[in-house]
Design a protein that fits this description.
The complex is a heterodimer of chains A (about 300) and B (about 400). Chain A is mainly alpha-helical and about 300 residues long. Helices cover about 70% and strands about 5% of the residues of chain A. Chain B has about 400 residues and is an alpha/beta fold. In chain B, about 45% of the residues lie in helices and about 15% in strands. Chain B is built from 14 helices and twelve strands. The chains are: A mainly alpha (about 300), B alpha/beta (about 400).
């Protein structure tokens, strides 16, 4: 029984990591309707940002959030304004542009680091909370709290603030939103900036857990896409709950079946859910089609 | 009239100058013995490609001080290849543009496989010093030889470590030892793990479980918990740096402390020290390429090699692969000298006639090539993390005064 509990805890902690990486992706995917292939690389930049802050001034990764998150927000706004906005009438080209960005970011970091793996040291990374034999790594627990806080915060922001309402309006119908006086371009920039900032937050929180490499974003992104589609496009809570579903399936299948099969198992569940609910668990049916409609 | 004569004279003189220049260039081209070094100099493995090539450069300098190869100065020409396709392109470029005499490489086995076949089209030797995949020599390619260790050497050395030093340290007979074999799931980890299982069982050791994991997995707790449940005396893992680090962290977090933990191939660099910290790493063993700290009796000249490296690059080797590359180029030069030419069949024939005992070279290697042109006298060594540093602990002859620490039930 304690083993089972242990696996559940492992799955929840892993779900927190998946959710953290997915929330920003879902925001961009759900609102701007761009499949941002470079989202994993934005997470990677967050990790290297934490390392750079440490290397430069000895900053703890949890403090570096104050620097990295705003920096990624600005970077996201710039990407939207100067790369994606000029291509806004060509949605396929936008996807290719994000793919190009992926290659560019990976290779720039590679050129700077020469491929050496780095880890950001923090005293917290060795702390393990032992509750009756259940081992909980503190840095993973922090990620879990962070994703919960982000989900609550995002949900509140989208419901209760003017920019949040603008984002929701744009998600529903760009043209009608524009007619209501909403600056769609500005909303897109804000959304992409937020998505990038959330990736940056994920990166800084994950930096103490992993040995980073320029390709590490790719390790998260496949699962993140599955989480987003499973949870439902554009749904904050979908990404949050989807992360836990994938995390729990992975932990249970990895332990009780075979670690080599765990990804195959969650893909099976993922496909099964999509057959039953094409819009994802928390999405609106047909939301995945919105991006294909004319929306100028 | 005078104008015509002058013009002819000038033309003639220019032609003569041009001809003599061309001849000069040709002589110069013949004077240097060009070695095309195929390795990743960009991409995620660039650090290691560079490191391997530093070994070649040091060997070239040493050879040049003694007159080079076949009386010609040795020159290393780099060919960047991080993928098999790039390996083929690098061979085309080095053979076509630079007219290299032979090829040497390769940190990446997949690149070696493709590039050596491309080199075959040019009838040029492909001498491998660092690739590990067993099938490279098993292909029986007539221009291919490997002077360094291969996957089997690493697997066998880890088995000898278990049945020798670790059995003794844990106070158990090999038949009473329980071992868990973990590996990354591609051909690299799987082939080594399969060989380990076969050899351990042959020695009577109980293999209580095998686990495969993806090197890109973002969580490996399941792998560690399965191993922990089997309560092994010894846990062995073959993988890459990121997954190895994640496994060690997870083991620490989950309180998994078997009698001994052994990594194969990676885990002995700064990347792992930074990720785990000296305290968590204390006692972890790594089967790796021989390092310059092996005793002079085991690896004659290893100290001089270290000093030469420091003098040229202003630091200690970043990874242990360079000394194996250094020795590999030396062995190749000996084979070429013995053959009297760089023609592949002749060189490989000469290599197969070599019979140098173990402990001939800086790495402790000897030179005895089997039918597939694989040097079979290339034992890796075993190092251990002790107080944040890696020291050679096995074979005992290589370790000198170094003793095993922190092994046994905690």
């Amino acid at each position: 029984m304690s083993t089972f509990l242990n696996i559940l805890v492992v799955g929840l902690l892993l779900g927190g990591i998946y959710g953290l990486v997915s929330i920003g992706l879902n925001l961009i995917f759900g609102v701007i309707r761009i499949v941002n292939f470079a989202q994993g690389e934005l997470v990677m930049l967050g990790m290297y940002g934490a390392y750079f802050s440490y290397w430069l001034v000895g900053m703890d990764p949890y403090v570096s959030i104050l620097v990295v998150v705003p920096a990624l927000f600005v970077f996201g706004v710039l990407i939207q304004r100067f790369i994606l906005q000029p291509l806004q009438n060509e949605s396929m080209m936008q996807i290719f542009a994000t793919f190009g960005l992926l290659l560019l970011l990976q290779n720039v970091i590679l050129a700077i680091t020469r491929g050496t793996g780095y880890t950001v040291p923090t005293d917290l990374s060795t702390v393990v909370i032992d509750i009756a034999g259940l081992k909980i790594s503190l840095v993973r627990l922090i990620a879990l709290f962070a994703v919960t806080a982000v989900a609550v915060g995002m949900s509140w922001f989208l419901k209760n603030t003017l920019p949040g309402k603008a984002i929701r309006a744009v998600t529903q119908d760009r043209r009608a939103a524009r007619l209501m006086g909403i600056n769609v371009e500005l909303t897109f920039m804000l959304t992409f900036g937020m998505g990038a900032a959330l990736a940056g937050l994920a990166g800084t929180l994950l930096a103490p857990i992993y040995t980073m490499s320029p390709q590490i974003g790719g390790n998260f992104i496949l699962a993140a896409f599955a989480v987003v589609v499973l949870g439902g496009l554009g749904s904050v809570w979908g990404a949050f709950i989807g992360g836990f579903i994938i995390g729990l399936i992975e932990a249970l299948a990895g332990y009780y079946l075979d670690p080599a099969l765990k990804h195959a198992v969650w893909f099976l569940v993922f496909i099964a859910v999509l057959i039953v609910r094409p819009g994802g668990l928390f999405g609106i049916a047909g939301a995945e089609e919105v991006g294909l409609r004319e929306q100028h | 009239m005078i104008g015509t004569v002058t013009r002819r004279l000038v033309l003639g003189m220019s032609a003569a100058v041009a001809l003599s220049l061309a001849a000069d260039t040709q002589v110069q081209a013949q004077e240097t013995f060009k070695i095309g070094a195929i390795n990743p100099y960009s991409g995620p493995m660039a650090l290691y490609g560079d490191e391997v090539t530093r070994g070649y450069e040091l060997a070239a300098e040493a050879l040049n001080a003694k007159g080079g190869i076949l009386g010609r100065k040795v020159e290393i020409v780099r060919g960047n290849a991080a993928s098999p396709q790039e390996g083929i392109a690098a061979v085309e470029q080095l053979a076509g543009r630079d007219n290299v005499d032979v090829f040497i490489g390769t940190y990446l086995s997949a690149v070696s496989a493709a590039a050596s076949e491309a080199a075959m089209n040019y009838q040029k030797l492909y001498w491998d010093t660092n690739a590990l995949a067993a099938n490279l020599t098993e292909r029986g390619l007539p221009n291919f030889a490997r002077s360094g260790p291969y996957a089997v050497s690493f697997a066998d050395q880890s088995v000898e470590l278990v049945t020798g030093l670790l059995a003794e340290a844990l106070g158990k007979e090999p038949k009473d030892l329980k071992v868990w074999i973990e590996h990354e799931e591609s051909i690299y980890g799987t082939s080594i793990a399969d060989r380990q299982k076969e050899q351990l069982e042959k020695a009577g050791v109980q293999v209580v479980g095998m686990g495969a994991h993806s090197a890109k997995a973002i969580d490996l707790t399941d792998s560690i918990l399965r191993a922990r449940d089997a309560q092994p005396d010894i846990w062995i893992n073959t993988g890459y740096v990121p997954d190895g680090n994640l496994l060690l962290r997870t083991a620490r977090d989950q309180g998994f402390k078997p009698g001994a933990m052994v990594l194969v191939g990676t885990g002995d660099t700064r990347e792992t020290l930074e990720a785990l910290g000296a305290e968590s790493l204390e006692g972890i063993l790594i089967v790796s390429y021989p390092r310059p700290d092996v005793t002079e009796q085991y690896g004659p000249g290893s100290q001089a090699y270290l000093e030469a490296y420091r003098a040229k690059y202003g630091q200690d080797p970043l990874a242990p692969q360079s000394m194996t590359a250094f020795v590999g180029l030396k062995i190749m030069a000996e084979a070429i000298e013995a053959a009297g030419s760089a023609e592949p069949e002749a060189v490989i024939e000469a290599a197969k006639k070599m019979d140098k005992p173990l402990n001939t070279y800086e790495t402790g290697y000897g030179a005895k090539f089997d039918d597939h042109a694989q040097n079979v006298r290339t034992p890796p060594t075993v190092v251990q993390w002790q107080n944040g540093k890696v020291v050679t602990v096995f074979p005992v002859a290589a370790a000198g005064g170094n003793k095993l620490v922190a092994v046994g039930k905690q």
